[in-house]
Amino acid sequence: MASDAQRKSAAVAPAAAGGPFVLRPLLHDVPLSADGTAEDIKINCVEYLDGNLYIGTTASELLHFVRIPPDPRDPDGSVSFILATRRRPEYSEPTAAPNGSRPGVQQILLLPRVGKACILCNWTVTFYSLPELSTVFGSTQVRNCNWIGGVDLNDEGDDRSGGVTILLSLNRRIQVVRIGNEDARVIRKIDFAGSTLSVRRDSIACVADSRSYALLDVDLQLKIPLMSISSLDESQPGGPFGQPQDIAGGADGGLLRSSSSATSRPLLSPGDIQGHGRSTSLGGFITGNIRRNDRRLGDTEDPVFQDSEAPPPSRSPGPTGLSSTQTQQNSDKPLPPPPLPPPQEYGGEAAAHAANTRPPTRTVSPPKPGSAFLRPHIVSPTVEEFLLVTGTGPLEPGIGLFVNLDGDPTRPTLEFDRYPREIVADGGAPDLSSSRSSPGNEEEGYVLASMVKEFEDGLHHGLEIQRFDVNVGEDEPQKFWLEVRDKETNEPTPNTPIGIRSLMQTEEMSFEEVVDKLCQRRFSPFRGGNPETPTMSLRSMDSRTAMSMERQSQEKELFDRDLESDEESLPPGWETARNREGEDFVRRLAKSSSRLAVWAGADIWWAVRNPLLLQLESTLNSAVSQNQPNTSERHQLLALLDTIKGRDAKSELEFMTLGYIRQRASVMLLSTFLGSPDPPFTEAETKAMEENLLGGDLDARVVLALIPALRNELVVNRRGIWIYGGVKTVVESCISAEDVGLAIPTVASLAPHVLQFLRRFLTAWRKKKGFGSIPDEVFRTVDASLLLILLELDQNTPKGQNAKSGSVRKELYDLVDHGVDCFDRAVDLLESYHRLFVLSRLYQHHKMAADVLATWRRIVEGEEDKGGELGDGEQRVRGYLSNISNQALVQEYGIWLAARNPKLGVQVFADEKGKAPKFEPTQVVAILREEAPDAVKYYLEYLVFGKGNTAYVNELINYYLDIVIHDIQSSPISRATVAASYDAYRALRSPKPTYLRFLKDNAPPNDEAWQSRLRLLQLLGEAHDYDATTIRGRIDKLVSALPERKQGSGKAAQQQLLVPEAIILNGRARHHEDALRLLVHSLGDYDTAVSYCLRGGLSFLASAPGRRDSLQTRETQMRLFRVLLAEFLVVDDLSDRVEQTGALLERFGGWFDVLEVLSLIPDSWSVDITAGFLMAALRRLVLERHESMVTRSLSGAENLRVNYDLITSIDEKEPVIDAGR
């Protein structure tokens, strides 16, 4: 057992409002006294049926009240009762009653099945009709009765013909009486003396006398003795405990019954006893007949009693007459007084009343020293169990034991802090005797015990409430303490004894507190209630800027934005109608029924199951008491949320309750989180708060309404935000507690941990997109708020940094890339934060190509983009243009790009893989000439070199020529560079590359003029059809404008700057001599000169595609070689002259005439220079001579062969004589 200190702690810990039961008024100020003068009158018992309330008092009066239902048109109306009758039941003075004690009306037993009521008043039972309490059965009375009851709790039949069987506990026996419509008859008498209490299930009754409990089979008249009421009482008679006993013996041992009954009722046979091996239970002993309700053979029905003046009946066989009052008085001696708490426990009037309510006494053996008489308590919490209470004394704890119908223990015991005065059981397994708040659902089982307990300020009367259907293990079981309160002051009245009883019929009632808290109400996040006149706010306002205007009016303006565009028209009074519908809906769910009546003094209450909502909300209210620090407060809130986490709702009301509590507790946590001066929440606490805010399905706008810096982002339609009324109250109280200022706080003013919380919370909320039950306005608000938070957090990211996984910038990109519902607001926010690149990503998601390009254009042209993520903007524009199909946009931004970056811009028009329709070259050229002239050359290069379109070769050559001549003409450095290239090349010793290779290898990488000259030489040297004459004329015209060089004058000197070009043009004009002279003397490119001769002067380049060198005649080649030899012989450098002449003659001697060469070679030259040529010439001459000799020999042999073949042919044909001649 628990110690006294533990019991006191357990008793005061739970709050009354947080317990499983609450008291609701049934009837206050009961007129216990007819004239109102008597003040010592108390309520003994209460019963209720079909709107009729029956109250029995110590003044031996029975009050009958009739229920007046409330006005159905008044939702706040309450039930009222009016006094119908005040009756004094008839009774007889009990035998040997001390000082004529009259306890008054002790019991009210209603039998609705037969429309009768049994009243036990001053130990006398009388019978009445329902509901008006008219006397029935004549003057029938049962005197010296201790208890009436024993109605079968399992009998739910409506058949009135069979009557109802009850048990009358007389001093020496129990009478089984059947109450019918017309009379009451004794059907059986059980030899069980001194019973004071009985509860029956089928044929098994659990009964108690003044000392012990027992189980009886009222049909088979078998008994199983159970435990003593007082564990200190050792005065019980001997006999086997827990074993069945037959109490249907003869006259010496049991009941007084007719001779026929005594002789015709058989006992159980030995075979029946041996049918079961277990004999310690009643069920084993009676072998399956324990539940048989048939009347035993030979039994007869006797009327209970007749008028007291009737003669006593004779005890002869056959049906007997009615027992007389005199016989009853002689056969039933008084019982010992029932155990009651000592006077000091109750004190005052209660003690005096207890002393005057003792039944008639009879002589009994005194108890042993140390034992105490305790009042027995029996209830049946389930259809298979009885709960019995034992103890050691009235001031000591009591123990509740559960036994089944066989007398075996079934579940752990209960402990009561004090031995109770009254107990009732409610709930548990399906039982008609329970008070149900949700019909059809199995509820928790509770035991309610009326007792007096000691507290620090003295003794308190109240109800101790605990569960009986759970295994509490080794921990102290949770108990609840409930006291009655004064109806006017609402203060506890601990000095008034409390009675409790389970009534015949339940009463349905509604909890308006639950209705108020669970009903959906329209919520406004600003002071002053719901706005009535919608207005439009400027969406482009920078939410970070504090506005110096009156806060309330500004918030309303922001709250109502976009409502003018809401085309939905709402009928007048729609909000009132919706509130009424919501209240009716919740009121239907919040109804509860109870059959437990509690009384104290002149007031009566219903003991109603406290709705889960009120229990949990009481815990919430205690968690936010003013005396607790914020740390303790949030720990209690989190603990409460953890208890309901994962709990499955058993009804719609419980589902709404759990959601409401989760929302309310989460809002309270968030309020603490936002305004706590203590250190921030731990990571685990913050995560738990986020999970509950999300899991509670609270509108995200309500959460954001608690943060003034984000109220600007709330979007609400005309119907507004609807949330639980209890949550609305909490949120509004938080908003009203804010400091009233002139400026709205900015997002930058939020603490970092708040920003991070909002970042995670809003990101998680966006995952609910697609749920049809969530309005679009919620996601518009969530997206705008999240975008604002991410923009604020991303300001700390270095400019130009890439978006890394898990970073704020990556989340920002994901947000806009996946689309936001608040598009216009997002544009305003991004513009206000100067995040143009992020804005372009938003446009990309919405496939707004024109806006994407326009935004990038703003960045490229220098407008501020604080993120700096665009990088190479021109290249991004180029890539994006290839992926869009709008030709007009491609043309617009292709021209813009070509004007800024001609090379890149031309790629737009040259892109063959783009999605837009292709442009015609003539169209592009015309556009570029007008809009981006510098890009024309690059587009022509694409056409000529990329596409092989030779139609634009001539025009491209002119572009290149313009660039080259302009560069040479305008830049002395360029002229000097060109001239220096010639000198440097000539200075190279053989072997050396061709001049063109030398020119490419030494070209500056980014020199456009140099690259243009290379392309010009390439085009001029290839087999393209261009106007060489016109080009030569342009060169002559442009070159003539060049300043004269120092080493020469005139056109010839000026043209030395364009030597390769002149060579190509001379070769194309077949001025081979001029071309070779420039190659040899101006360039010193001897290898190219030799190639020029081999190709017949058709190409200056080393390889010219499309040329057919084999077509050149040997005569042309020989002529060119003779010209080249002549030029070599006049080279200024003697060593080059000798070296190149000797090499030419040695390699290509076959193209020269020996005599002609010898005539040209100076006589002063050594023979060694031409030795190779001469030796080759001699070899060639010898070879030619030998070849001619062989040819002649072959010709002679061939002639001989022909002659031989002729002669042979003539001989074969023989001579022929022509006779005709």
In brief, what are we looking at here?
This is CNH domain-containing protein. The chain is an alpha+beta fold and 1221 residues long.
Q: Which strand order do you get reading across the main beta sheet?
A: 10-11-12-13-19
Alpha-beta content class = alpha+beta
Helix content: 25-40%
Task: Enumerate how many helices there are, as a single number.
Answer: 40
The major sheet is characterized as:
5 strands, antiparallel
- What is the number of beta strands? 32
Subcellular location: Cytoplasm
Keywords: Cytoplasm, Protein transport, Transport
Main location: cytoplasm
Protein name: CNH domain-containing protein
What does this structure look like?
It is a single chain. The protein is α+β, with helices and mostly antiparallel strands and 1221 residues long. The chain is 39% helix and 16% strand. It is built from 40 helices and 32 strands. The strands form eight sheets. The protein has a five-stranded antiparallel β-sheet with strand order 10-11-12-13-19, with no helix packed on it. It has a five-stranded antiparallel β-sheet with strand order 14-15-16-17-18, with no helix packed on it. A four-stranded antiparallel β-sheet has the order 1-31-30-28. Strand 3 and strand 4 form a beta hairpin. Helix 22 runs antiparallel to helix 23 (873-881) and helix 24 runs antiparallel to helix 25. The longest helix has 47 residues, at 1167-1213. It is elongated, with a radius of gyration of 60 Å. The N and C termini lie far apart (172 Å). The relative contact order is 0.05. Residues 1-15, 250-303, 305-365, 530-553, 561-567, 1045-1054 and 1102-1111 have low confidence and may be disordered. Keywords: Cytoplasm, Protein transport, Transport. Residues 40-475 form the CNH domain.
